[in-house]
Amino acid sequence: MFKEKKVVSQRSCQMGGVRKRYREELERNKESLEKLIEIIKEQKRTTLLYSARGTKCNSAVVLLEIVKEMLAPQISNFIQQ
Predict the structure, then answer these.
(1) Whether the predicted pLDDT of 80 surpasses 80
(2) CA 46, CA 54: separation in Å to the nearest integer?
(3) How far apart are CA 19 and CA 36, in angstroms?
(4) Residue 62 exposed, middle or buried by CB count within 10 Å (0-12, 13-18, 19+)
(5) Contact 60, 51 (CB under 8 A)
(6) Are 22 and 69 in contact, with CB atoms under 8 Å apart?
(7) Which UniProt keywords apply (predicted)?
């Protein structure tokens, strides 16, 4: 039974369920997300931690995607200069 639960959880992630819910949560907390982005910009290195068993589907992976999306315009501007 435990294995079945894990499979369902991974399928949910693959279908975008976890990703979608976490993105919605972060969208509702836009101010906190923007503050995190400012902190990340100030640091040489940032480590994102997660407590989920899955390494491909967890909040840190989704957060990393969002951070990359938000920083992409600045990175591309920096590279073009």
Answers:
(1) no
(2) 20
(3) 19
(4) buried
(5) no
(6) no
(7) Coiled coil
Torsion region of 52: left, alpha or beta (phi above 0 gives left; psi -120 to 50 gives alpha): beta
Q: What letter would DSSP give residue 46?
A: -
- By 3-state DSSP, what share of the chain in percent is helix, strand and coil, each rounded to 5? 75, 0, 25
User: For residue 57, which phi and psi values (nearest 5 degrees)?
Assistant: -135, 95
The C-alpha atoms of residue 8 and residue 54 are separated, in whole angstroms, by 12
Residue 75 is predicted with a pLDDT of 65
Alpha-carbon gap, residue 33 to 80, rounded angstroms: 26
User: What does the block give as tokens for 11?
Assistant: 């399928």
Condensed to tens digits (0 to 9), the pLDDT of residues 25-75 reads 999 999 999 999 999 888 888 888 888 887 887 888 899 999 999 988 776
